[in-house]
Specification:
Elements lengths: L1 E2 L13 E7 L2 E9 L5 E5 L10 H4 L7 E5 L19 H15 L4 E6 L1 H12 L4 E7 L7 H11 L9 H7 L11 H9 L2 E3 L5 E3 L4 H4 L17 E6 L7 H10 L4 E5 L6 H4 L1 H14 L2
Parallel strand pairs: 1-11, 4-5, 4-6, 6-7, 7-10, 10-11
Antiparallel strand pairs: 2-3, 3-5, 8-9
Amino acid sequence: MSAQLNNHTELKPAAYTDKFIEVAGLKLHVQDFGTAGKPAMLCVHGGAAHAHWFDFIASGFTADYHVRAIDQRGHGDSEWDKSPTPDYSYGRYAADLNEAVDKLGLRDFVLVGHSMGGVVSTVFASTFPGRAKAFILIDSTICMPPDRIANMHAVGNREGRHYATQEEFLANYKVRPAGSVATREVIQHIARHSGRPFEDGRWRYKVDRRIYAMRERMDSFPYWNNIKIPALLVKGDRSARITPEVIAEVKSRAPQVEVAEVSNSDHHVTLDNPLGFVHVMREFINKNK
């Protein structure tokens, strides 16, 4: 399955309301795009990102789904784990997700996870079966190599960049990893939701850097043994994360898994080609209703 669409201007950021739910003692932020009464969809962002990564694709689904996106602990407008040894493990994120599903009253929903959020969603779907009815994983690293983990630990243990003003923050903002082909308008939209002034008045990213310092090495292949619901692996055509070998390994454990490639996109598929992503996602959902 391959999407050949690439028109950034056809999808605008969807309107939403902000909600907060308490999960494991932390206040987590949820963007509720609507539409109430429709089948549910829950979107989970990647590491150091936030729920606004789904603003553009949400507008492609609100006519038929009640779409929500959550800021995971330590990210976006959700609270940080303030304990001396914060728990930013995949198991904790998945347990947060399970509790959030209860608080939001979700049943038989479509689960969408990007990058780290895709791995968290994999752990959730495997550990808490019977909750989601379909699972879409977007360009995740399913088995993280040791050198990547070492690099994350180094990043998390040093001071991040900070800026005197919001204007300076916006002017210097970049999505990571590099390689995104999103339009300037899309990147600036994400940037406007990515920073805030801290206690010293300096603008920084809205993420607890300890999420990197505490990152555990994860081989999520075994979790696919327990995922029986319809599932889709989505890769950007410029990304090397989901290789033929990865696909073969996942399908050996979960034969029902399908694969889709979105053209003109790298790792940040929902930003690079939101219309193309919506196209392949709709094809998959419609086929698996």
